Amino acid sequence: MARFGIVVFPGTWSDRDSYNAVHDQLGQDARYIWHKEHDLQGVDCVILPGGFSYGDHLRCGAVAALSPVMAEVVEFAARGGLVIGICNGFQVLCEAHLLPGALMRNRTMEFRCQPATLRVENPDTAFTRGTGRGTLLRVPVSHGEGNYFADAETLRGLEGSGRVVFRYVDATGDATAESNPNGSLNNIAGILNQSGNVLGMMPHPERASEHLLGSADGLVIFRSIVDSAARVLAG
Amino acid sequence: MARFHADVHIELKPLVNDPAGLVIRDALRHIGFEGVAGVRAGKYLSLELQAHDRVDAEARVAEMCRKLLANPVIEDFRFEVRETAPAESIPA
Fold first, then answer.
1. Using CA atoms, how far apart are residues A130 and A222, in angstroms rounded to an integer?
2. For B26-84, what is each residue's pLDDT tens digit?
3. Given strand A136-143, what is the order of strands in its sheet?
């Protein structure tokens, strides 16, 4: 069994959905970790869920990135611990410099809450090992600032090393301008850090975790993490 | 310690796309300001702080900008600092 730590900042709103996905749906150990805590309680994977941490004042995720628990998350990630940042969690990871680039205001200036189709670009990661190259996942997005930006050199580095993990595509799997909900460069929906243990993604796999919600496609990401954690223990 | 006031301006780097600026530009054109070629939206922060002297105040504000107020990936910052109360006027 994998042990998940779900970080809760003031203003986090997807902590319960994350708990539902990993605990209720997958039967894994899950616990909430308050942002003021310094103890990650020996978890295998840290989830930074979606929401509006600290009201998203100044910039999305900027204040959360400096919170006490994030010092521990940075250290945990440096030791190779698995970290997944979803939506606001992705923004926090960028602000904490655990992932490159930044998430800007959506191109349309609208908050977008809608289903999206993601194409798995790299199935050989700790977060996607249960998928295949080109697998399409139906997972919702829900954000106002998910427009991924990185300078040209960073972008080349990400694209050239399989670190673009998910892309927004249409129903047939093509990365079109229309299927891009926020204006992200190269339709990027999720990226990996250089060592492969930190993933950031704007779409919400925890909100696609059972058929009642319209899709259970997001579960494969959490299942992949469980599998990866088991391999670490076995290895 | 003396008191200082800092005006901090944070703006997007020139290469970064600015959706808010584009909407404002289009709105200005819509109400008749056809000559508006471009708009960039930024942030203005007004800070009150204590520091030993102006050099110290400027160093502190620059550090605040680097650590929190600006995101170096997408933003540039600049600021002006002025003394509002000299050290001798503030009880130790």
1. 9
2. 999 999 999 999 999 999 999 999 999 999 999 999 999 999 999 999 999 999 999 99
3. A29-34, A3-8, A45-48, A82-86, A198-201, A188-192, A164-169, A112-120, A136-143
Q: Residue ranges of chain A with pLDDT lower than 50?
A: none
Query: Are A99 and A193 within 8 A, CB to CB?
Result: yes
Secondary-structure breakdown of chain B: helix, strand, coil percentages, each rounded to the nearest 5: 35, 35, 35
A23 is catalytic: no
Which of A116, A142, A121 is CA-nearest to residue A132?
A121
Q: What is the pTM of this model?
A: 0.94
Residues of B (50-79) whose Cβ lies below 8 Å from A: 67-69, 71, 73-74
- What residue type is assigned to position A90 of the chain? F
Q: How far apart are CA B65 and CA A191, in angstroms?
A: 27
Task: Determine whether the interchain pair A102/B69 forms a contact, defined as Cβ–Cβ distance below 8 Å.
Answer: no
- Between CA A53 and CA A44 the distance in angstroms is 23
Residues B4, A181: Cα–Cα separation, whole Å: 44
If you measure CA to CA, which chain A residue comes closest to B71?
A: A95
| A59 close to B (CB below 8 A) | yes
Confidence of residue B87 (pLDDT cuts 50, 70, 90): confident
Identity of residue A129? R
| Amino acid in position A112 | R
Cα dihedral A63, A219, A46, A3, rounded to 10, equals 150
Contact present, A5 and A45 (Cβ < 8 Å): yes
Q: From the CA of B90, how many Å to the nearest CA of chain A?
A: 31
Q: Measured between alpha carbons, how far apart are the two ends of chain B, in Å?
A: 8
ipTM score: 0.85
Active-site residue identified among A60, A121, A143, A204: A204
Residue A162: other Cβ atoms inside 10 A: 14
A97 part of the active site? no
Structural contact between residues A16 and A3, judged by C-beta atoms closer than 8 angstroms: no
